[in-house]
Amino acid sequence: MKHSVKCLLAIVSLCTALATANPVYAADKAVTSDMQILKEKLKADKKLLVATNLALTDAEAKGFWPVYDSYQKDLGAINKRIGAAIEQYAKEYNAGVVADDVAAKLINETVAIEGSEAQLRKTYAAKVLAVLPGWKAARYLQIEGKIRALIRYELAAEIPLVE
To answer: In this structure, is residue 163 part of a structural domain?
Structure first.
């Protein structure tokens, strides 16, 4: 397990670093294609990490994987909102000064995103508990939480404080 977690964390770190890189590079089709490949690899590796650490029975797997896929899809929408907020902040920050009204808008969006993510976790916690024993549900939610925490840590390390 430790090796799987380290591999996944390295991939998450790489994807996060690339995702927050200079937006000029995003226009390059080769870089965009590489990012898509990395995203798909991360999804596959994450799913493998979850599968390895849950050791689901056939019956559990039948109930769990559709819930997992739905959750990942819904997390994708939240990730897009996070990305848009980061892009807006980067644009303003790189322009020199983040105006008070823009800062307030970004604060409100960030708080709203965090609320949406918390509500999503609550909704899916119930769904996961409906298809897995309590300890496996808890373990899955811990894995998701650790991955999200790492992503937030990496973002925090890369995003400069507002001036």
So the answer is: no
